[in-house]
Structures are given as C-alpha cells and as structure tokens.
Design a protein that fits this description.
alpha+beta; Sulfite Oxidase, Chain A, domain 2; five-stranded mixed β-sheet; binds ligand MTE
Length: 314
C-alpha cells in the first residue's frame, strides 16, 4: 500500500453480504425506486442485517454512520505479513493459527506477566463500538469492533512512573505468515503510543468485529484500534506489550521516516508528501468525502495535543 516502489477463507465463514448491506445504502444504490420501497416495507426484517446490528442501544462511543459490510471489512485489508495486496490477507491467512495465543506484558510495570489470551481477556467486559477508521492511503471504513479499553489492562499491570510510552509487537512466524519471508517491511511489525494516548478511553484492544472473533486477516486474536489515527497504528496479532521510557520505533516510520511519523493523527491539514489527506473514499461509496480533524474524534482527543506543532509531529 504505502510502499514507495513500484489458505483461503472458507465461504461458510463469510456472512452473506446481503445480511450486512445497509438498507438505506441499498435503496440509494438501486435505480428502481419501487424495488427499494418493496425492500424497505415488504421484505422481512431478517434480510436486513444492519437492523439487527448492533444489538441494544447506541453507545456513547458509536458513530451514527452505517458500518461497512462484513465482507468489505474482511476482504479489503492491509496485513503485510500475508502479502501487500488488499485481497492477500483474506486469501493467504487460512494457515495462520491464532490459538493458542500468549501475550507478554513487560518493561516498566509492577506486574509483568505472560498471559494466555483467554486469561488476559476474561476480567474485562467486552464492548461493541462502531468506529470510523481512516487509512493513510485515503480510504476509510466504519467498523463495529468488539473489545475492551487498553486502559483497563494498563491499570491492572500497574506501570511504574518511568513508563511514558507503550510499545507493541506482532507475532513473527514466517511458516504461517508467508509475507514475513520477504523483506518488504522490517519484521516483526512494531507500533507504539504515548501513555496518555494508550489510556484514552477510545483506544481499544479488539478481539472481534460484527460480534464474532476477529478473522485472521483483521488481526486475530487481538489487535489495537486507535480511531483518531491512521490505520497503520492499529497493529494486528499482538504478542508483546512493553512499557518504556522513550518513544519506541514504529514499523512505517522505520520504513519511510519522511512519510510516516510516530503520531500519525488523522489530519486533513497535513498532507502526505505524495498525496493530499483532505478527502477520503469510504469503501462502498462513489464520491469522496471530506476528512475530519482527528477523524472526527477531536472532542475526545484534541486536548492531548494542545501546544504541539502537528505539522512537525506528524
Ligand atoms: N498490523 C500488522 N502486524 N501488519 C500490517 O501490515 N497494517 C496496518 C494495520 N495493522 C498492518 C497492521 C494498516 S496499514 C492498516 S490500514 C490496518 O492494519 C488495516 O486493518 P484492517 O485490515 O483490519 O482494516
């Protein structure tokens, strides 16, 4: 995707797209208004997946926008461990085994530990949250994640006062991640957040989407979700969480430091050196839409950056 250069998912694992296609979107896209009306009023509710999702009331963190279909979210991916094309992660990740899984929590913490994933997740109440997600390449999606705030885990492991950043690492297992046999990026993939960003209530450790366990191509079994930052900050298939004193290295910054900074906040005012960031294409839509400051999450996150030069700290 971003490079300066020139096992298959079983069909039974993919929910039929119709179940997730949004009703209004369907009506808008059909040229036969009558057909749209029939769909709206006559077809049974069970055909309209969006009406069943999410269950319950809209939560305080949810966007009102329509989620993308499960099919879009699981077939249009960036996960270079499985190849560099958008279709590669779904096509090449069937042999990847996200169970059993352990996560090492270490560094500047009072309670370092190696957790089985189940034990790590068990104490927390999983929430469904519908987030806008914006990729640095200029496309976006709306994704109904399931997960828990990273802050909950941080409080449990009790960072020391020296912990200023959190560093994350993806699994390195080239036998199951064929992309790791090529040096398109430095492996393992690494990412990081400043401590206040990691503690922000929007920051999730996601273990599912659309109410199901994460598909391999979306970062099974656990990945980071930081909706006000470009998508590459959302490191997938995490095996290590390390609390550190200074800003940790990050994969895309190592790969192209002049193009990808540590912060990578969505910012329509700061262009990528090779393209504008003022607008984006929502997957499934035709016209581009304006990109919002902090991807629309300014109310919740802007104060963390007050006084910072966001052009320098891109
Ligand atoms: N994590 C790892 N380990 N490897 C990757 O290549 N790609 C990133 C991010 N996390 C990536 C990763 C990028 S560029 C994006 S846009 C998002 O994952 C895409 O997440 P999605 O495929 O679930 O939408």
């Amino acid at each position: 995707m971003l490079l300066r250069r020139g096992g298959n998912l079983k069909s039974s694992e993919i929910t039929p797209e119709l179940l997730y296609v949004n009703r209004r979107q369907f009506i808008r896209s059909t040229s036969f208004a009558g057909l749209g009306l029939a769909y709206e009023f006559l077809l049974p509710e069970f055909l309209s997946g969006q009406d069943r999702w999410p269950r319950g009331r809209k939560g305080p963190f949810d966007t009102d926008e329509d989620p993308n279909s499960y099919k879009d979210i699981t077939t249009y991916n960036n996960f270079y461990e499985f190849g560099v094309d958008k279709s590669d992660p779904a096509e090449n990740s069937a042999a990847f085994r996200p169970k059993p899984w352990t996560v090492r929590v270490e560094g500047e913490v009072k309670k370092p530990a190696t957790y089985n994933l189940e034990d790590l997740v068990k104490p927390y109440r999983l929430e469904d949250r519908i987030y806008r997600m914006r990729c640095v390449e200029g496309w976006s999606m709306v994704i109904p994640w399931r997960g828990f705030p990273l802050a909950d885990l941080i409080r449990k492991v009790e960072p020391t006062s020296r912990a200023k950043f959190v560093a994350f690492e993806t699994l390195f297992r080239p036998e199951e991640m064929p992309g790791q046999k090529r040096s398109v990026l430095q492996w393992p993939y690494v990412e990081g957040l400043r401590m206040d960003e990691a503690l922000n209530p929007l920051t999730l450790l996601a273990v599912g989407l659309y109410g199901k366990d994460l598909a391999n191509q979306n970062g099974a079994p656990m990945r980071l979700v930081v909706p006000w930052k470009y998508g590459f900050k959302g490191i997938k298939s995490i095996v290590k969480i390390r609390f550190v004193q200074s800003q940790p290295p990050t994969t895309w910054n190592i790969s192209a430091p002049e193009e990808y900074g540590f912060y990578s906040n969505v910012n329509p005012e700061v262009d990528h050196p090779r393209w504008s960031q003022k607008s984006e294409r929502r997957i499934g839509e035709f016209f581009r839409r304006k990109t919002l400051m902090f991807n629309g999450y300014a109310d919740q996150v802007a104060s963390m950056y007050s006084g910072m030069d966001l052009k320098r700290n891109f």
